Amino acid sequence: MEKRVEILKKHNIRITPQRLGVYEILLDKNKHLTAEAIYRKIRVSFPTISLATVYSILELYYKKHLLNEIRIDFDKSCFDIRTDTHHHFLCKQCAEIYDIDLHPCSALNNKEVDGHLIHELQGYFYGICSKCKDKSNL
Ligand SMILES: [Zn+2]
Ligand SMILES: [Zn+2]
């Protein structure tokens, strides 16, 4: 709890209970959540908060590099508290998004392709997740 406050302070974020609440939801779930999903969860503790407020908090955190926006699913964007470079996998069956730690692409880091200097690479992978694959094998 203290640590979380410290992290936000370190990023020059003025702490409000709502801001802390959004941050804790992202940390505790450690999942890729949509703004709507965060909104549904935070309303349990803050019934009067608006979706617009949730969006502005997410925008603030994004600008402060505290979270990443994932657009693996074209219909919605998700927010990821993990900001180190990693890839994502979307299951076409259950729509779950998984983190993938795959490093074959690290060779491309800070290399040039067609004259463009690459700083970072994030891959989106699509298919059937291990859970759904197991179910269909039964
Ligand atoms: Zn699945
Ligand atoms: Zn992720």
What do you see in this structure?
The chain has 138 residues and is α+β, with helices and mostly antiparallel strands. It folds into 2 domains: 2-78, Arc Repressor Mutant, subunit A, CATH 1.10.10; 85-137, 2-Layer Sandwich (Dna Ligase, domain 1). 39% of the residues lie in helices and 18% in strands. The strands form 3 sheets. The protein has a 3-stranded antiparallel sheet. Helix 2 packs across helix 3 (35-45). It is globular, with a radius of gyration of 17 Å. The mean pLDDT is 89. One zinc ion is lined by residues 32, 80, 82, 86, 88, 99.
Number-wise, the strands total 8
Alpha carbon gap, first and last residue:
43 Å
Tell me about the biggest sheet? Answer: 3 strands, antiparallel
> Looking at CATH, which topology of the largest domain would you report?
Arc Repressor Mutant, subunit A
Helix count? 5
Strand order of the largest sheet: 1-3-2
Domains counted in the coordinates: how many?
Answer: 2
Strand content: 15-25%
